[in-house]
Amino acid sequence: MTSDPIVTRFAPSPTGYLHIGGARTALFNWLYARGRGGKFLLRIEDTDRARSTPEATAAILQGLTWLGLDWDGEPVSQFEGMARHAEVARAMLEAGSAYRCYSTPEEIAAWRESHPRQPFQSPWRDKGPEDWPDAPYAIRLRAPREGETVIDDQVQGEVRFGNDQLDDMVLLRSDGTPVYMLAVVVDDHDMGVTHVIRGDDHLTNAARQVQVFDAMGWKRPVFAHIPLIHGEDGKKLSKRHGAVGLHEFAALGYPAEAMRNYLARLGWSHGDDELFDDAKALEWFDLSGIGRAPARLDFKKLEHVSGWHIGQMPGDRLLIELDAFLSETGQPALTQRQKSWLTPALDALKDKAKTLPALLDQGRFALVERPVELDPKAEAALDTVSRGMLKSLTAALQHASWTRDDLEQAAKQVAEENGVGLGKVAAPVRAALAGRTSTPSVFDMMMALGRDETLARLNDQADQAG
To answer: Which NCBIfam families match (predicted)?
Structure first.
């Protein structure tokens, strides 16, 4: 006997950008389904028409695509399912698991004022057709009044809610529109969702939602309510902590695969493993590894993870990542000439870079064109004596075979002839090749730029010697 295939879903509201917490929720759902050969579905919960925008929906889809999370089928619009949601409410009414409530907003408010800290109890719950007025009515769930609603949560454990603390939830408003809580249940059932993995701020919603599942005789999904993400200070994550939108992390230059690794570890663990690729994440991820305590966003740890992934990437993959980063941030794309100079240096550069902007900064020498503009420190490094040494070096390099050993030997020879250390020769070379004094190894730069470009840049500065 084979078990039913796993089906998870990510169901964001399109009211803004994709929050880092939402991105992690999507990742957990994706890992759980994909790691078990299941389906990962996407539902846009756009019933709040006043706040839902097509732009926000597009931003969410773009964020998920950037993060590398693919979904099965077309995204489902919750708003477009309103007729189906209303149909279920009316079916519950016919079955007796829901009832007509004619209470007005004023009557409900007055009841609550006279019964503080108690859930609303509708006087219409037990009335029949003979008592129904000719007036608009809401459809309410006939929820159990005694006992408990129990949820066996995969993260939180067994969670109990006293039924006397839960009111008879409205399913269909008096204007005929279904409520969000009903829509979620109907959509999860109709989409065949087997596992609901979401933030623990939805835990109280789950108590009401399982009552709808039970009333309809539908199988409950497996619930896993994951703790929220907090800032480094332990407080609920907000803009004061820095980047909170996934697009902001993309713009800061963290590669998508590093974000997947980091977000996977944000509240979930597999022993002491911190650094891993997608294959390992898909193999290891399980709901039992999710902790109950809120996770803390740690930018230093994110940088460490990002640096490791950049260091693991081959050059061609890094170029793709750099192109995507430049596009994301609205910067000009790399030219073929720039790529031809940067590519040979990537192996030497990537081990020191923790982000893509840092990698570009390290490789700036390959991105500038002649005449290379000098910053103040580079200008200071190119005095008359230094330019004279550059002149000697260009002469020595004219006939050198362009290998690292020969380049280093030529530089050492010039240093000896001038009675200085190698560093005194390297400083003006850095300035001439990159226009700055903080650069990768001068020999890495020379190898990457090649003979013609290197000699041209050195000559540009040597020719200004007195």
So the answer is: gltX_bact (TIGR00464)
Residues 57 and 147 in one domain: no
For residue 126, being part of any structural domain is answered with: yes
Of the three residues 187, 207, 226, the one that is the final residue of a domain is 226
List, for residues 299-336, the tens digit of each pLDDT value: 999 999 999 999 999 999 999 999 999 998 999 999 99
**Phi, psi of 51, deg, nearest 5:** -110, -20
Residue range of the domain that includes 345: 313-367
* Residue list, annotated binding site: 239
Q: Which amino acids are annotated as binding site for ATP, given as ranges?
A: 239
Length of the chain: 466
Q: What is the pLDDT of residue 1?
A: 42
Verify that 318 and 441 share a domain, yes or no: no
DSSP string, 123-173: TTTT--GGG--SS--EEEE----SSEEEEEETTTEEEEEEGGGS---EEE-
Strand partners, 230: 236, 296
Q: What is the DSSP letter of 179?
A: P
- Reading the block at residue 325, the tokens are 């980063």
Of 39, 235, 236, 239, the active-site residue reads 239
CB 199 within 8 A of CB 11: no
217 and 236 part of one domain: no
Q: What are the tokens at 68?
A: 């590398």
Count Cβ atoms within 10 A of the Cβ of residue 131 and give its class: 0-12 exposed, 13-18 middle, 19 or more buried.
exposed
239 annotated active-site: yes
Instruction: Confirm whether 1 is domain-assigned.
Output: no
Based on the fold, state whether residues 19 and 120 are members of the same structural domain: no
Task: State how far Cα 402 lies from the chain centre.
Answer: 44
Is position 135 within any domain? Answer: yes
Residues 6+ apart with CB under 8 A from 43: 9, 10, 11, 75, 76, 77, 78, 187, 191
Q: Is residue 185 part of a domain?
A: yes
Which two structure tokens, joined as six digits, stand for 322? 């750099």
Boundary residue ending a domain (204, 226, 248): 226
- Least confident range from 49-53, 189-193, 392-396, 457-461: namely 49-53
Residues 147 and 243 in one domain: no
Phi, then psi, of 101 in degrees rounded to 5: -125, 120
DSSP line for 318-380? HHHHHHHHHHHTTPPPPPHHHHHHHGGGHHHHTTT-SSHHHHHHHTHHHH--SSPPPPHHHHH
- 120 class by beta-carbon count within 10 Å (0-12 exposed, 13-18 middle, 19+ buried): middle
pLDDT tens digits, 398-451: 888 999 999 999 999 999 999 999 999 999 999 999 999 999 999 999 999 999
Neighbouring residues of 271: CB distance < 8 A, sequence distance ≥ 6: none
Cis peptide before 371 (omega within 30 of 0): yes
CATH of the domain at 419: 1.10.10.350
